[in-house]
Amino acid sequence: MATSRVLVVNNGTLSLKQLRKRFEQLGSETDTIDAASAPARLDPRYQAIVLSGTKVRAFDSDYYRPLIDLVMGAKVPVFGICGGMQIIAVANGGQLAEGPQRVGGYDVQVDKEEPIFSYVKPTVTVFHRHTLYLQAAPAGFRSIGRSEHAPVEFLRSDDGRIFGAQAHLEFRNDGMEILRGFAEIYQ
Predict the structure, then answer these.
(1) From its phi and psi, is residue 177 left (phi > 0), alpha (psi between -120 and 50) or beta?
(2) Is residue 72 within 8 Å of 87, Cβ to Cβ?
(3) pLDDT tens-digit profile of 40-75?
């Protein structure tokens, strides 16, 4: 079987090395670009796109326009991590709000019928490092995980191609197992 290849878009995360390592542990090769270098079309050698967290506010739609065009036009599965999910949500009409600062492990309830949650229990502990929260899933998406402070901890597009996580899944065992569920979709 050929090795799968994932395009990781670095939006300024502090944990790019850990994110790439997780996908490589799952059997995928990774290449990295920054958001400003997003191509107009996805190279056919990639089976998935992953958007990292970000230091640039997701509200900056002009900065992220090429990236959103790539994500929405691609035919492969996409996973937005933390700020990556927020970029996708805001571009599709989602609203973010300031909330309590969370750093560390937090419990989240997930919808077990979703394939990305095949390897975890209904309550997962995932790593957070943020203060912005998506208030509701935008049109064309639905919440597939929630917590006390975030009604949308996990997001899925109605067509099942685009996923998002408020948490940094590159940390903690539950995060790795959720990424394993995603990898089974594109491998």
Answers:
(1) alpha
(2) no
(3) 999 999 999 999 988 767 777 788 889 999 999 999
Helix, strand or coil for residue 120? coil
DSSP type of residue 102: E
Which residues neighbour 137 within 8 Å (Cβ) at sequence distance 6 or greater?
A: 89, 94, 143, 152, 155
Rounded CA gap, 187 and 182, in Å? 9
- Cross-strand pairs, 64: none
- Amino acid at position 178, single letter: I
Beta-sheet pairing, 96-110 with 154-157? unpaired
**Contact call for residues 21 and 8 (beta carbons, < 8 A):** no
Three-state secondary structure call for residue 84? helix
Give residue-wise pLDDT tens across range 155-186. Answer: 999 999 999 999 999 999 999 999 999 999 99
Model pTM score: 0.94
64 neighbors 111 (Cβ within 8 angstroms): no
